[in-house]
Amino acid sequence: MDRLKKTAIDFDINDKLSNFREEFIIPENKIYLDGNSLGLLSKNTLSNLNTTIKEEWGNDLISSWNKSWVNLPKNISRKIASIINSKEEEVYVGSSTSNNLYKLIKSILDANKDIKSISTDSLNYPSDKYICEGVSKDYNIDFNLLDHGNDSLPNIETLKKFILKTKGILILSHVTYKSSYRYPIIEINRFCKDNDTIVIWDLSHSIGAVDIDMNHNELNYAVGCTYKYLNGGPGSPAFIYVRKSEISKLKSPIKGWFSHENPFDFSSEYKESDSMNKFSNGTPHILSLVTLKTSLDITINASTKRLENKSENLFKFFHSIYENELKNLNFELITPENKNERGSHISIKHEEAWRISKCLIYPANQNSKEIIVDYRPNNIIRIALTPLYTSFEDIYCFCFRIIEIIKKAEFEKKDTSMQGVT
């Protein structure tokens, strides 16, 4: 393993994105491999948030609305648009992913009265499924679930047959949360377009680590969060994307203050904005929006093309250790090896995944670093390759530790209670 450690250090020395790691606050004695759930806090975000609280809120008070806050959602939308290569007027930032998916589905249904079903698959994030089921019940239309069984990967031909049978609205995660499988997004979009199906993509597990081009990928609708690879912080606002040609067709199901065409006219008559502002329910959440001002700039400066390339190199390094060491210790890689079918996290299975995760996060040896990963049922350990700050040495240390945990049977000292690992 000493040779591998030297290799990792050499890769880090030659990594042209390694300077971005210095932008973040990384706690001592911890290796953070959970950026696909919650990104790190950037140093500039902390400074910017303090300024907003102390100066804008503390000193300037309500005058800060005119000075900066009222334009903040638009400025953040512009940054998101830059990251996904879309027009800024095609993006709304605010609320949560679930709320945004709810609003988007209902607005599409109201604009297309002939739609008779909403569908998703078993690889989608559970909360997306909850929203689909709820809206289907509200509209008294069919809800369809394509169950891939115990498989972590879909069969695309089976998915196509499912689309032909169900049609209507289809919701898929661009990158699936368990296995990190990445759908062939252009292929699916074109198939849906040819077969009377409207597809909404959840970009939560891809934006910021996978290069996304809304025009090239022919997307019409999408939602996503900003607290994973975009490092906006817990509960930072999500976004909605609607292609410009489709915006005027939609009406938001919630008539809010800031979705009015002229909110500061304080009119007693509601007139919906003809822009993406129509999805804004009420007063923007300034404190959570402001965290994105600088965190998004880091991603923009790094560029998602370069970030995806580094993610590929991190995976290759991990995969070499997996093939030579981990596979022989009964670890199973369930993440696709083909880079075009993979997001930016790695999922491995082991029958002792739960207790191994506990060992990583709560090492018996106080001199060992805490390695923060996350566990997903059943028996899956997820390792985030967050290109802005994950180093090759981080991957080496993770692999070294799980080998040590298995060979020393350290996991046997941990109980099986479902506590302590998120």
Task: Summarize the SSE layout with pairings.
Layout: H1 2-13, E1 30-32, H2 43-60, H3 63-67, H4 72-84, E2 91-93, H5 97-111, E3 117-121, H6 126-139, E4 142-146, H7 156-166, E5 168-173, H8 185-194, E6 197-202, E7 221-224, E8 239-242, H9 244-247, H10 286-289, H11 291-302, H12 304-326, E9 332-333, E10 345-349, H13 353-361, E11 370-372, E12 374-376, E13 380-384, H14 392-407
Helix pairs in contact: 1-14, 2-11, 4-11, 5-6, 12-14
Describe, in plain words, how this protein is organized in 3D:
- The protein is 39% helix and 13% strand.
- By secondary structure, the protein is an alpha/beta fold.
- The strands form 3 sheets. A 7-stranded mixed sheet has the order 2-8-7-6-5-3-4, sandwiched between helices.
- The radius of gyration is 22 Å and the shape is globular.
- The chain starts with a helix and ends in a 15-residue tail after the last helix.
